[in-house]
Structures are given as C-alpha cells and as structure tokens.
Amino acid sequence: MVEEGSIGGTCINVGCMPSKYLLGIGDLYHYGNHGHPGLDIEIHADFPRIIQGKDAIVTQLRETRSRQLEELNITFIKGHAEFLFPHELVVS
Fold it and tell me: Does the pLDDT of residue 21 top 80, yes or no?
C-alpha cells in the first residue's frame, strides 16, 4: 500500500476520528456549562490537554492500523504512486 500522508489516511489523521473526539468534548463542555434538562454540572476545559488527548488517539489508531497491515502481510510505503504502464507502478 502506498500513501503520501501518514498511515490511516484522512479519517484517522485529520478527519472522522479526531473531529468526533473534539466534537464530543465540545458537547460535554456546552451542556455542562449552558445547561441541559436534568444535568447539573460545571465543566472546565484545559485545551492543551484536550489536544494532547486527540493526538494520543490518532497515534494509537495509526499504530493499530500498522499492526493490522503487518498481520495481513501488507507492506506500507510512504510516497507518491503513479502508474507508468497498466502493470508498472513508480513510487517517489
């Protein structure tokens, strides 16, 4: 498998996973500080630690994906791939 960016592509690195993590924390912060029927709490946010948590999850997901590829005997190559001919690929 050839990938220009980090293993895991958009979803793991900058898309679905990190955004859902941050949106979930945003919901907690909003409802904790602006009320919700039956919810009586106050939440304080430490944004540098929140970002560290998001980064840790991304790192864990990359490592999991790497192990999965190894278990399937799939080689990960970081680079840009182009077909020269129908059955010939060059990676830079």
Answer: yes
In CATH, which of 3.40.630.10, 3.40.50.40, 3.50.50.60, 3.90.1150.10 is domain 2-91? 3.50.50.60
| Of 51, 31, 55, the residue nearest 41 (C-alpha) | 31
Cα torsion for 39, 41, 46, 52, to the nearest 10°? -50
Burial class of residue 32, CB neighbours in 10 A (0-12, 13-18, 19+): middle
Phi, psi of 83 (to 5 degrees): -80, 125
Query: pTM for this one?
Result: 0.79
Mean pLDDT of 2-26: 93
